[in-house]
Design goal:
Elements: H1 4-20, E1 31-32, E2 35-37, E3 53-54, H2 55-71, H3 77-92, H4 95-98, E4 108-110, E5 114-115, H5 126-134, H6 143-150, E6 155-158, E7 161-164, H7 187-192, H8 196-213, E8 230-231, E9 237-241, E10 244-248, E11 252-253, H9 267-271
Antiparallel strand pairs: 1-2, 2-3, 3-4, 4-5, 6-7, 8-11, 9-10
Length: 275
């Protein structure tokens, strides 16, 4: 259990750190252009292991900051500062720069090599990113950027369900942590007659169907035992089990129906599906 004042103190310390930590093109900064590196050294608070400046992880951070600002609404000095810092962090993120002159948003950037060649295209957890970036009061994406993103969607039919495809279950879950999508439709979803909440529900049922069908014949898969998503795993290794050559992975974005699937189930994927 944590008291409100303890939560205020921890939240304020976190937001103060991100607001004052080094921002710049140097390879050992905490972030750049209001965005932050995927991993930070726990001792120094600076970039770790030459990782990328991550647009999606920055979006998740900012969503958390804005949630804290919405929760801590009292007129005390500390709670006012939480709201001020969260707003400042949101305003500082330069989403237009992150487009790198393209229609969609890039995955990230490194001081050594510039922008990553991959972009947020195809349905995934970037739904939250695009919503935050479109609503930015300082560096908003144009509406055309969202349309460019949805133009890369894949609508599929699988195990009796028609849905907007994304393999790993977490991609159907993360944006829903912050936004209740029931009844909210963009042009793509209006054309399909559903919303993102219903789409994620279908993706979850599809996971259950996949476990029942169990096309790769893994031990334990069944109606009440599923959860194929990005997670750690037992690999990397290749083993022969019961006469079948199996390849096992470490961390990978496991998904259905196209894989990868090495028999690893993540309990958190099921927990995140609960109402």
């Amino acid at each position: 259990y944590m008291t409100r004042q303890e939560a205020v103190a921890r939240t304020l310390a976190t937001l103060r750190f991100f607001h004052t930590s080094p921002q710049g093109p140097e390879p050992d900064a905490t972030g750049y252009r209001g965005l932050y590196y995927h991993f930070l050294d726990m001792q120094t608070g600076r970039r770790a292991s030459q990782c990328e400046l991550s647009t999606i992880d920055s979006a998740l951070l900012l969503a958390g900051a804005l949630s804290a600002a919405a929760y801590f609404g009292e007129e005390t000095a500390d709670e006012q500062e939480i709201r001020t810092l969260a707003d400042a962090l949101y305003r500082r993120a330069d989403w237009q720069w992150a487009q790198n002159q393209g229609a969609t948003v890039t995955h990230g950037w490194t001081p050594e090599n510039g922008f990553i060649k991959y972009r947020w295209e195809g349905y995934d957890e970037a739904l939250l990113l695009y919503i935050l970036a479109l609503g930015s009061p300082t560096f908003p994406l144009p509406e055309s950027s969202y349309a460019a993103w949805t133009s890369t969607y894949r609508w599929e039919s699988c195990y009796g369900y028609e849905y907007l495809y994304a393999g790993s279950l977490f991609t159907h879950q993360l944006s829903h942590v912050w936004i209740d999508f029931r009844g909210i439709q963009d042009a793509f979803m209006r054309g399909k007659g559903i919303d993102y909440f219903e789409n994620s529900r279908r993706a979850t049922y599809l996971q259950q169907c996949y476990a029942i069908m169990n096309p790769r014949k893994f031990e334990g898969y069944r109606e009440c035992c599923w959860g194929i998503t990005a997670s750690e795993g037992p690999g990397p290794a290749t083993l022969k089990l019961n006469g079948v050559q199996r390849e096992f992975y470490d961390y990978v974005g496991r998904g259905v129906p196209y894989g990868p699937d090495d028999g690893t189930l993540a309990p958190w994927a099921v927990a995140a599906s609960l109402p």
